[in-house]
Design goal:
The chain is mainly alpha-helical. Helices cover about 40% and strands about 10% of the residues. Strands 1-3-4 form a three-stranded antiparallel beta sheet, with no helix packed on it. The chain has a two-stranded antiparallel sheet with strand order 2-5. Helix 2 crosses helix 5 and helix 3 runs antiparallel to helix 5.
């Protein structure tokens, strides 16, 4: 049974979150340069498609991306995805650690191989529960899912996180 005990910290003000966000924002230029396509990263749906292609070119499975989730590239990708959602959807960053009942609450990206915990940030509507939020790192891992919960074929896209973008849809036609 899972335990979402009230640990007295609001998800938007969790002490681990500001330092991680600052570190990611300050490292964005260097991250963008390291991707080899620094001019691509404008937080648009098209840039999320480019990021998806880059992620898929570097990892073949969710297990591989999970193993690399604490590395510079995926940390930057997680921040970038979340920022794109924040900037286009009015979302805010949140961090609400979760652990299986009785386990110690984790720090932000604290576990090398997390099991039974949530230790990554999400983005969502201000004031709403984090259960309704988007977890950028989960979206990265979800790129490798081929079936939904019911076994139906599915393809997940990072740009879908931004919802419908009329401008993007018109450009694609």
């Amino acid at each position: 049974m899972a335990d979402r005990t009230d640990h007295g910290v609001e998800p938007q003000t969790h002490p681990d979150l500001p330092a991680w966000l600052t570190e990611r924002a300050q490292g964005f230029e260097q991250w963008a340069e390291a991707t080899g396509t620094p001019g691509t990263w404008d937080f648009s749906p098209r840039s999320l498609d480019a990021l998806e292609d880059l992620i898929r070119s570097q990892y073949d499975s969710d297990a591989e991306s999970l193993a690399a989730r604490r590395g510079t590239f995926l940390q930057g990708a997680c921040w970038y995805i979340g920022e794109a959602v924040c900037r286009t959807q009015g979302a805010v960053w949140k961090f609400e650690p979760f652990a299986v009942k009785g386990a110690e609450l984790p720090s932000l990206f604290g576990e090398a191989n997390p099991s039974g915990i949530v230790d990554d940030p999400c983005v969502g509507v201000p004031g709403e529960d984090t259960e309704e939020a988007i977890c950028p790192m989960g979206a990265v891992h979800g790129l490798f899912s081929t079936e939904d919960e019911l076994g139906n074929p599915t393809t997940q896209r990072l740009s879908d996180l931004l919802g419908d973008s009329d401008e993007y849809d018109e450009e694609e036609q």
